[in-house]
């Protein structure tokens, strides 16, 4: 029984691609067969975040246009044998694919994978329509800022209108020092405003920048963000994972990982 | 000086702004119109009992009863503090 999850946010730059890469990698490490699909046609990013940009031959548009078979476009991850990436096209635009074509392609992929994760483009136009067309559930990513929360609320409304069965919230880039000072909304403030179920809180972590530079998702590597994404993966699988408190851990873990990086 | 000690944290400001903003986003009507609805409701209720119009709140939520096609319909909630029932 496969599950199709769309990672979306409305606003750009809040961490959809990072979340897709880390949740996909984490689920694959937990023994699931996972397919990541970059649906951002014209602005592909998931391939560089995954470190697979040099291996692209065919892409999503080639698949829907019949230039290649689905299998030819899938790139196997360099570290996880059960993880595949379907890259997006860089030289086309969103109108190259229709929601019907996405549904058809996902139906084929369902036979081979446990989880299919769709990285949605920013906005609520055709790219968003394409990405949500074949999905069963959604992870809505937001940061604790007014603009991102407003857009997340709009997205949740649109997903509810499409009768999504499950919509879960990921709060990204939370800074506990600002929350303590009263200068940033806490996770419970955001949940209170959006009234959706919370699936994870990811602290603001410089290790994300490092991991993106290297093209290696940091899920499960002991950094604060890595722990948070690992926990999200567990919750996606339906496990009860307690929410970690990052207010104390950040400096400690950064110090520990900093030592190893230097050595 | 008094103002300084009672200053809201920026988080509180953000939360309050968002709450008002999302109400109008959700129903596609402006904050001014929400204020007008609020004033009209207060006026009608005031005919029958004494209410605290200043601290009354109206809110549109998505947790309303299921509509015809199984889609959640928005519902208008009004919280009106009553000062005196038998006016």
Tell me, briefly, the overall form of chain A.
globular
pLDDT averaged residue by residue of chain A: 93
Please, how many domains of chain B?
A: 1
Strand neighbour order, sheet with most strands of chain B: 1-4
- Mean pLDDT value of chain B: 79
Given helix and strand content, the structural type of chain B is: alpha+beta
Tell me the strand percentage band of chain A. 15-25%
- What composes the largest sheet of chain B? 2 strands, antiparallel
Secondary structure category of chain A: alpha/beta
Order of helices and strands of chain B: HHHEEEE
Domain count of chain A, please report it. 1
Termini separation of chain B (Å)?
40 Å
Instruction: Kindly report the name of the CATH homologous superfamily of chain A.
Output: P-loop containing nucleotide triphosphate hydrolases
Q: Multimeric state of these chains?
A: heterodimer
Overall 3D form of chain B: globular
Low-confidence stretches of chain A: none
The profile of the biggest β sheet of chain A is: 8 strands, mixed
Instruction: Provide the gyration radius of chain A in Å.
Output: 18 Å
Count the E strands of chain A.
Answer: 8
Total number of strands of chain B? 4
Written account of the structure:
The complex is a heterodimer of chains A (263) and B (87). Chain A is of the alpha/beta class and 263 residues long. Chain A has one domain (3-262): P-loop containing nucleotide triphosphate hydrolases (Rossmann fold, 3-Layer(aba) Sandwich). Chain A has twelve helices and eight strands. Chain A has an eight-stranded mixed beta sheet with strand order 3-4-2-5-1-6-7-8, with helices on both faces. In chain A, strand 3 (75-76) and strand 4 form a beta hairpin. Chain B contains three helices and four strands. Chain B has helices at 2-5, 10-27, 31-46, and strands spanning 50-51, 57-61, 75-79, 82-84. Chain B has a two-stranded antiparallel sheet with strand order 1-4. Chain B starts with a helix and ends with a strand. Classes of the chains: A alpha/beta (263), B alpha+beta (87). The A-B interface holds A 145-146, 149-150, 153-154, 157, 160-161, 163, 179, 181-186, 189, 193, 195 and B 9-12, 14-15, 17-19, 21-22, 25-26, 61-63, 70-72.
């Amino acid at each position: 029984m496969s599950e199709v999850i769309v990672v979306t946010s409305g606003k750009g730059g809040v961490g959809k691609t990072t979340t897709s890469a880390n949740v996909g990698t984490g689920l694959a490490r937990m023994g699931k067969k996972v397919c990541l699909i970059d649906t951002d046609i014209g602005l592909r990013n998931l391939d560089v975040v995954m470190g697979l940009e040099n291996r692209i031959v065919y892409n999503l548009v080639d698949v829907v246009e019949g230039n290649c078979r689905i299998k030819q476009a899938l790139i196997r991850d360099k570290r996880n044998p059960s993880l595949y990436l379907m890259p997006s096209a860089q030289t086309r635009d969103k109108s190259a694919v229709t929601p019907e074509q996405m549904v058809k392609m996902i139906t084929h992929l369902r036979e081979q994978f446990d989880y299919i994760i769709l990285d949605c483009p920013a906005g609520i136009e055709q790219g968003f329509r394409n990405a949500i067309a074949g999905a069963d559930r959604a992870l809505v990513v937001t940061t604790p800022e007014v603009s991102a929360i407003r857009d997340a609320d709009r997205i949740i409304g649109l997903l509810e209108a499409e009768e999504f069965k499950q919509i879960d919230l990921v709060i990204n880039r939370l800074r506990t020092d600002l929350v303590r000072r009263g200068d940033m909304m806490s996770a419970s403030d955001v949940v209170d405003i959006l009234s959706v179920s919370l699936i994870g809180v990811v602290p603001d972590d410089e290790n994300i920048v490092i991991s993106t530079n290297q093209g290696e998702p940091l899920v499960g590597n002991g950094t604060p963000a890595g722990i948070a994404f690992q926990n999200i993966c567990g919750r996606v699988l339906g496990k009860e994972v307690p929410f970690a408190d990052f207010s104390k851990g950040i400096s400690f873990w950064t110090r520990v990982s900093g030592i190893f990086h230097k050595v | 000086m008094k103002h300084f000690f009672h200053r809201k944290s920026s988080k509180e400001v953000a939360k309050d702004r968002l709450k008002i903003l999302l109400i109008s986003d959700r129903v596609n009507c402006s904050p001014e119109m929400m204020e007008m609805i609020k004033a009209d409701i207060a006026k009608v209720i005031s005919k029958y009992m004494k209410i605290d119009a200043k601290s009354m709140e109206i809110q549109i939520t998505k947790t309303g009863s299921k509509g015809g096609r199984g889609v959640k319909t928005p519902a208008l909630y009004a919280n009106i503090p009553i000062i005196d029932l038998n006016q």
